[in-house]
């Protein structure tokens, strides 16, 4: 196992952060604040308003937002526009941007900030993986996989509204998992037994208690709850913190983590209630009505709910087997080339592509299924991944426009544990490293195409 606090390990983590940050920055030099809803939201708060100014036409000296989607205009009692609008997104990314907007106003470069947060996410992944019984090479390779071999790369270098929310949530979830692993050394060491009052010193969970609860598990829950206020569906990963963490038994783990999670999630619900009169924002209902008619090519169904089991069957093929456009029709009799916009050999589809096609190293996670039901850590990760993915698949939209399958960022921190443990256990690590290398190459291809298409 790679010592998590050795000087060489710390420097390795810092080097990975610096390299990933440099790659993310180089990936998108021409950063524009085209979709920056959270900047406008932070600005509205500074003005003492819940609704953003909308629609605003750009001038030579001030940006505009009259082209924004995902905004519901606020009307007065007479039904007239008030010049304000509500956005549906959970507010944490706007909270993160608040000090920057206070300094730089509407010119705040949220995309550049997303790049830095994305690099921090990768550093947190390296820290989290250090809590697992991994060789150094496996730990480094798995970290690189998350940073460059998954759609986190595309999300961080692009950094527009929807992707910023993912980037913020990923880091907080990784931190929550790390704290839970620190509080539960059995989960990291392979000693997978419950305390349940047993006084055996081998299975006791060391550390201070408050009212019989482990404060580290409370902190893990708090960080997890914050992640949920950036991406709501992350909350369905909560069973992980029932199975993994400090406390010595599942009820104590659940109570401590639940109390921590309840603070930010409760604050989020209170914010919705104050600003919209509902615990869950009604803006999504408004937008669903608009989008089902505006985008018939996406096969939305106005008579289905926003979250509907029938969408699961419609969307699952995209997540599992969505293909790129292969030899699409050429324009203007152009010759085919790898990165020809008018006549490509293969090009990504804007509705998304298969999770396993864009990041084939995710397949390594299936090697960990041998410990399902035996190891609490593996079981917790599998339940979290399946629960989050299922709820996302029931959502009417799957993240269009995008490279790959961006909703995978919601469960990526849990799935990364499975990949790392699977790679560590296999005797054919060369194949695993090859899958990681292939994942990096495919995501580089996707980042390039994203910019060629102007996504």
What does this structure look like?
With 455 residues, this protein is mainly alpha-helical. Helices cover 54% and strands 4% of the residues. The protein contains 17 helices and five strands. It has helices spanning 7-27, 37-46, 92-104, 110-129, 136-148, 152-158, 161-183, 185-189, 215-228, 239-243, 250-276, 283-294, 309-321, 355-358, 376-393, 412-425, 429-453, and strands at residues 52-53, 72-75, 81-86, 325-326, 346-347. The strands form two sheets. Strands 1-3-2 form a three-stranded antiparallel β-sheet. Strands 4-5 form a two-stranded antiparallel ribbon. A hairpin with a 5-residue loop joins strand 2 (72-75) and strand 3 (81-86). The chain starts with 6 loop residues before the first helix and ends with a helix.
Summarize this entry quickly.
With 455 residues, this protein is mainly α. It has 17 helices and five strands. A hairpin with a 5-residue loop joins strand 2 (72-75) and strand 3.
Keyphrases for this structure?
globular, two-stranded antiparallel ribbon, 455 residues, mainly alpha, three-stranded antiparallel β-sheet
Distance between the termini: 41 Å
Low-confidence segments, ≥5 residues, pLDDT <50? 195-206
Q: What's the count of strands?
A: 5
Structural class, by secondary structure, is mainly alpha
Q: What is the multimeric organization of the chains shown?
A: single chain
Could you estimate the helical fraction of the residues in percent?
40-55%
Radius of gyration, taken over Cα atoms and rounded to an integer in Å: 22 Å
Strand order within the widest beta sheet: 1-3-2
In percent, how much strand structure appears in the residues?
under 5%
Average pLDDT figure: 93
Shape: globular
Largest sheet: 3 strands, antiparallel
Helical stretch count? 17
SSE order, one letter for each helix or strand? HHEEEHHHHHHHHHHHEEHHHH
């Amino acid at each position: 196992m790679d010592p998590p606090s050795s000087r060489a390990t710390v420097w390795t983590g810092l080097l990975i952060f610096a390299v990933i940050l440099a790659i993310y920055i180089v990936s998108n030099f021409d950063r524009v604040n085209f979709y920056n809803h959270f900047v406008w939201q932070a600005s509205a708060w500074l003005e003492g308003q819940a609704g953003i100014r909308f629609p605003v036409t750009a001038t030579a000296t001030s940006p505009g937002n009259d082209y924004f989607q995902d905004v519901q205009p606020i009307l007065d009692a007479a039904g007239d526009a008030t010049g304000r609008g509500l956005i549906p997104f959970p507010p944490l990314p706007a909270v993160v941007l608040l000090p920057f907007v206070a300094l730089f106003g509407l010119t705040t470069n949220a995309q550049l900030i997303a790049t830095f947060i994305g690099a921090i996410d990768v550093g947190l992944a390296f820290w989290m993986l250090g809590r697992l019984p991994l060789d150094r090479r496996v730990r480094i390779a798995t970290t690189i996989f998350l940073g460059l071999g998954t759609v986190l790369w595309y999300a961080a270098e692009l950094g527009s509204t929807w992707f910023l929310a993912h980037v913020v949530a990923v880091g907080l979830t990784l931190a929550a998992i790390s704290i839970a692993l620190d509080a539960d050394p059995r989960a990291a060491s392979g000693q997978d037994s419950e305390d349940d009052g047993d006084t055996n010193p081998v299975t006791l969970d060391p550390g201070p208690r408050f009212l019989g609860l482990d404060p580290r598990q409370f902190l893990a829950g708090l960080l997890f709850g914050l992640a949920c206020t950036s991406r709501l569906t992350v909350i369905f990963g909560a069973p992980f913190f029932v199975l993994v963490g400090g406390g010595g038994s599942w009820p104590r783990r659940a109570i401590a983590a639940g109390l921590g999670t309840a603070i930010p999630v409760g604050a989020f619900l209170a914010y919705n209630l104050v600003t919209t009169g509902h615990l869950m924002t009604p803006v999504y209902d408004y937008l669903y009505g608009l989008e089902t008619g505006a985008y018939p090519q996406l096969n939305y169904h106005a008579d289905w709910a926003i979250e509907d089991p029938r969408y699961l069957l419609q969307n699952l093929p995209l997540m599992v087997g969505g293909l790129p456009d292969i030899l699409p029709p050429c324009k203007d009799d152009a010759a085919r080339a790898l990165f020809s916009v008018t006549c490509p050999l293969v090009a990504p589809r804007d509705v998304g592509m298969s999770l396993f096609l864009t990041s084939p190293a995710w397949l390594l996670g299936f090697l960990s299924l041998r410990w399902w039901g035996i190891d609490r850590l593996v079981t917790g990760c599998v339940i979290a991944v399946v629960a989050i993915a299922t709820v996302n698949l029931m959502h009417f939209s799957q993240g269009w426009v995008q490279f790959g399958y961006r909703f995978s960022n919601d469960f990526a921190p849990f799935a990364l544990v499975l990949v790392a443990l699977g790679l560590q256990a296999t005797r054919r690590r060369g194949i695993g490293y090859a899958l990681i290398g292939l994942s990096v190459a495919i995501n580089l291809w996707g980042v390039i195409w994203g910019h060629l298409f102007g996504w």
